[in-house]
Amino acid sequence: MKKKIALIYGVTGQDGAYLAKLLINKNYIVHGVKRRSSSLNTSRIDDIYRDPHEERNFYLHYGDLSDSLSILKTIKKIQPDEIYNLGAQSHVGVSFEVPEYTANVDAIGTLRILDSIKTLGLEKKTKYYQAGTSEMFGATKPPQNEKSIFYPRSPYAVAKLYAHWITINYREAYDIFACNGILFNHESPIRGETFVTKKIVSGLCAIVKKKNSKLYLGNIYAKRDWGHAKDYVVAMWKMLNKKKPKDYVIATGKQYSVKTFVNLVAKELNIRIIWKGSGLNEKGYWGNKSIIEIDKRYFRPTEVNSLKGNAQLARKELKWKPKYNITALIKEMIKADFNS
Ligand code: NAP
Ligand code: F7E
Q1: 270 Cα to the center of ligand 1, angstroms
Q2: What distance lies between CA 187 and its chain's CA centroid?
Q3: What is the pLDDT of residue 105?
Q4: Cα-to-centroid distance, 90 and ligand 1 (Å)
């Protein structure tokens, strides 16, 4: 049987790496787009990259979501059965610093891919997955599902909302098989260093190993629904392999504050943190040493306080449910970090 061909934007990122490995295991030929960078940016996928002279099922191409020409040419050349658009300036805090760039890549980048599918006449061949986000719900009260109102609270979330609706519009206008996955936070040992879970795990491991003495955090009262990226990429693939295209919330349905996440990591590391003070003066003590402090630079101009997803539709129609709970996720993240 002819192998399916997938094209992944954002293949060098956390989800891109897990998805590429999942699809290779499912016997796909996988093409990924990477950005030109002055330092190597392929550490998450080096284990699946093969020498171009060997027989391969994984190929890399240079490209960028801000570059329409490269997108059109790459899709024309590869003629993919499935495109997964995971590429993005994905940091919410950073999006306040670079709002225009975030909109160009996260919003218009999505349009560039969808319009390339249409321009190349691939509407009937190429299925499209859009990496949507719980950040689009923003200020809307939890639990959030597919019917909840969107109220984005950052340039990142506003850009992703454009991507969400342009995906629906191209599905309805041109009959493209296009799905929005509305994914709640998902983490892993290969999560980017500046996202809060990875920062907490690395920070506390470094303190226990005496390589550092303090961890600075922002709003520790924000609440999130954290899952494992390995579980979440399965849902992406399931969406594109259903009979009809639809949008799905993917979440665990459990919610913890950043402060609770710190306490859970500390517990796994066998350290007990005592919290004292409040507001910007709140501190976490290990014995008589203050090891966690609050730094206002990590606060956002507008915050998303409380996210908790209801993924009943995905459970029912995609037969998807997460294998990892928060403890298993934390254990895996600590193990990888401690041994690095
Ligand atoms: P990530 O680790 O930050 O990866 C983002 C990927 O996008 C990287 O490969 C990055 O390349 C690439 N990229 C950035 N700018 C680009 C550009 N201009 N052109 C082409 N590629 C570009 O993000 P992730 O956690 O894997 O998330 C994957 C997707 O899901 C993102 O769209 C994110 O917004 C969305 N999402 C994530 C979560 C989550 O909790 N992880 C939840 C909901 C939605 P470099 O490696 O060169 O930087
Ligand atoms: O922040 C608070 C911060 O940056 C989580 C992205 O993958 O998930 C991610 O976005 C919470 C926020 O993730 C620090 O204010 C406290 O309330 O880990 P984060 P995020 O903003 O939820 C969504 C679903 C995406 O789509 C995004 O692409 O933690 N927080 N102190 C901190 N956050 C960071 N980064 N650093 C801190 O020191």
Answers
A1: 33
A2: 8
A3: 98
A4: 5
Active site residue 156: yes
The 3-class SS string of 68-102 reads HHHHHHHHHHHCCCEEEECCCCCCHHHHHHCHHHH
Q: How far is the CA of 262 from the centre of ligand 2 (A)?
A: 14
CA torsion, ordered 87, 90, 94, 99, to nearest 10 deg: 60
* Ligand 2: nearest atom to the Cα of 133: 26
Report whether residue 82 contacts ligand 2, using a CB cutoff of 6 Å.
Answer: no
Q: Nearest Cα to 227, choosing from 326, 308, 104, 144?
A: 326
For the domain bounded by 5-189+227-254+304-324, which CATH number is listed?
3.40.50.720
- Predicted TM-score of the model (pTM): 0.98
In this prediction, residues 220-244 reach a mean pLDDT of 98
Q: What is the pLDDT of residues 290-339, one digit of tens each?
A: 999 999 999 999 999 999 999 999 999 999 999 999 999 999 999 999 98
